[in-house]
Amino acid sequence: MAILKIARIGHPVLRQKSAPVDNPTSPYIKQLIEDMIDTMYDAGGTGLAAPQVHVSKRIVVFTVYPERAQSEGDGEQAGVPLTVLINPEITPLSDETEQGWEGCLSIPGMMGQVPRFTHIRYSAYDLDGNRFEREARGFHARVVQHECDHLDGILYPFRIEDMSKFGFTEELTRQGPPKSE
Ligand code: NI
Question: Could you read off the pLDDT of 36-46 as tens digits, one per residue?
């Protein structure tokens, strides 16, 4: 088990377009992903992308806890188990977007309201080198879009449309959890 150092906004590795993984089943990739999972849990994150641990490769790990899926009213009340995405691709299944609050382990202590597609399909290789596909809505879809953005050097503040909806979590939640508009 290894906890990796997380890059913070401003570090150039977060702005790079990451390279595809040539061999999803290589021992190096397996080890990297194990360390990413340890790092994500240690930091209390919902997801983590490889560039956030200074590795410019197209790998994402994430999980959606049932409590979070319920509070977002997704109808995906079981949440999403720990998932590894290698070389992921996203296809929006509708033009509809919604605003929602996001945070990022690379931007500690802050949050912002970001528009995301509400309904997507995504595909990726798993650790066994098999391509799989899923549909996602709501918060699940949001997490996948946020993490995959990291692979293209995009951080959530770049997508915020109303900068008054960006700030320190401590300040924005003084009157309770902020509402999405
Ligand atoms: Ni992030």
Answer: 999 999 999 99
Active site residue 67: no
CA of 95 to the centre of ligand 1 (A): 23
Cβ–Cβ < 8 Å for 140, 77: no
- CATH level 3 topology of 12-172: Peptide Deformylase (3.90.45)
Q: How confident is the model at residue 76 (pLDDT cuts 50, 70, 90)?
A: low
Which residues sit opposite 64 in a β-bridge?
80
Q: From the CA of 166, how far away is ligand 1's center (Å)?
A: 15
- Ligand 1 centre distance from Cα of residue 96 (Å): 22
Give the domain ranges of the chain.
12-172
pTM of the model: 0.94
Cβ-in-10-Å burial (0-12, 13-18, 19+) of 124 comes to buried
Q: Amino acid identity, residue 5?
A: K
Residue 25, SS3 per DSSP: coil
Q: How far apart are CA 160 and CA 29, in angstroms?
A: 33
Ligand 1 centre to CA of 36 (Å) is 13
Catalytic residue among 96, 147, 171, 181: 147
Q: Under the phi-then-psi rule, with left for phi > 0, alpha for psi from -120 to 50, and beta for the rest, what region is 75?
A: left
What is residue 74's predicted lDDT score, i.e. its pLDDT? 60
